[in-house]
## 1
Amino acid sequence: MNDLLVEKKNHIATLTFDRPKARNALSNDMRNNLRDTLAEIEHDDDIRCVVMKGAGEHFMAGGDVKRMQDYADQTPEKIRIDMTQRIHDLHPIMFSMRRMAKPIIASVEGAAAGAGVSFALACDLVIAADSAFFTLAYVHIGTSPDGSASFNLPRSVGIKKAMEIALLGERFDAQTAKDIGMINFVVPKTELAAETDKLATRLANGPTRVYGNTKKLLYRSLENSWESQLQLEGETFADCAARNDFREGVAAFGEKRKPNFKGN
């Protein structure tokens, strides 16, 4: 099984988690195909924006807990070894999402639970239906978060709110997620597809290299010293200025017209 649908159109790659009967719970096949697909898209200059969404009525309802039940009769040492490997197998996806020099949008409908929250947080922008809901539900199956959620969540909502979300594992709606800074946009459920496409199209027609350098700047700012960040600002600005989209942007400004960016 593939468990991941990939559509490439108009410079947008739409990746659809495709296990609707399991609320798109993350399977091994889905993880492996997502890893390989992101690695390919990262170096595909025709793709200038990525959208992640779920098939059916949900985004992603966490990991495959039914599969985890297979460990019931295993020794603690066996479980420790296998689970450590499973978690590390997820990391190349998160590295790729963070490193990718093009914007990634999560389009959330229905449940975003456990790993679903982790994936949404790992995207650069999140748009959600007003009927969507979120829960970092790891605590309910007796484990701690993975998928970079422990890194991204406190940086999105603050440490106290992150503690509340992670320790209590309570469910909250899309508007609450927006209010606390966890997602960007909330739209009516019937308009989610159209609004996602509108946002993705806007980004896919923008200065892609600029977006990549801006991602680098903002993410690095979370760890860099002040001096290192200013050095990086100089490097990324100069890199952007040496590209065709900068020439087009400056020309369009002088000619009082909308720029026609090509992503290079």
## 2
Amino acid sequence: PAGMPLSLLPGAGGNKFRTGGLLAAWRSTAEVTLPVWSAVAEVRIASREAPLALWHGAGTGDGRTGLLRAHPLLTSDVLTGPVFGRRVTHGSVEYARPLRPTPVGGLSIAGFVDAGRAWRRPNGLGRSPLYVDAGLGVRLRAPGGGAIRLDVARGLRGGGTTLSAGWGRGWPR
């Protein structure tokens, strides 16, 4: 029905489902010309009746908002990431240091650590291990907000080094 929140629409069997989450975010300063520490932690939950398309995940790419930058969530549009389930926790800590302004925005270097874990995963799988990734990146802050990020991350669990890029619409995402 019109006006009904997406999280309350019935699935194919007519059962109602729910999704929700809690996001906590902190940063040391909002001043874009100063070095900044930031931290984000999130818990996301989907009910048993929620379709797979609304389950949560953490990784790189367009699949979900949670960052786990050394672990792609999708490979050739197929879900392959290890941190995907009806309940997901993830967090990131980042330090970014401005280098200089450019004609298209401010340029910064960054170091980060991401972590994530999933519960109630597809195919009856239980809890995933805790995945932790660490890396370095470059940020190009656009005038008016948002930033382009280019990151190289190494998975501390599962190995692998991944190059990823993304667009952050504004803090804390």
## 3
Amino acid sequence: AIFRTLISIDVCSVHCTSMTMASGLTVKLGIHILHGKEEGSRILLMAGEEGDELYSVELMRHLLEQLEVHRLGGTLTAVPVMNPLAFEWGEPRSRHDGYSLRGCFPGNASGTATQRLATKIGELIQQSDAVIVLASGGPYCGECFTQLGTAEGEKAKISEQMANMLGLPIRETPVRTGTAVQYALDLGKPAISVHFGGGMYIEPEAEAAVKQALYAILYANNLSWPECTRTAAYLQTMEVPSNFGGLFHPEIGPELLGKEVPLGTPLGYVQNPTTLEVLEHYTAPYEHTSILGFRSMLSPIHPGTTLYVLGEELPQHQIN
């Protein structure tokens, strides 16, 4: 039978039947379960791992609204908002305990609120055959890459196939432990995170291409996809933090997201808003610098704020 189901589950602990907050309200996760016409692989698709990744939640909505359920290659379990605690405030971390969900896996069933969320989501990961996490930049940022975790053997190969299907630049630098993707890989499940969009204008053609690639992944059965050639892969990437607080001025626009710029291209600068002094200026550090993510809007920043994710394109013989 072809059908879709919307359920909610309590975020449970070993000591109580649900996670009740100070307000007396119970925290629940909304979960969409969609069954294709045939038995097949169980794919877990999630968004909103951090509470300010609003674009990832919106992308999930578009995917579910336009999905042709009968074409699914098996069963799709979709979680539009992984972290309702942080989403409530539109912040990366939960105010309840200061934790980011991206770092709490496998969780703690009797721990803090975010750790309990990780435990419940971890159960969904354990029940799945493959995991895809939709991520995005926050309100001031944009991203454009697919992140691979640390894996070997067949699960690594399948994860790479999924990444290749998306056609986005592939970031091969290891993800930190405690993420949903790395937890899935540690359990032997193929997994990727798709970092796309954010609080900036995204060309409709680019969004449509990503959605079509995700549909192709979901419609295939038994985690079997055609081999695809990667156009760019990065074994090393650079995250550029600010050394000073102040007002950040971008000098590149969203049209360069996922694109390459030459060495020395002005990227942006930080200015003291009271003295008007330019404190730091940023330029492209590589002969072929790819813009995988960046802060794209005039915004106040603190010392240590990540402004850019940059990749140096590998020589052709190092690209599959």
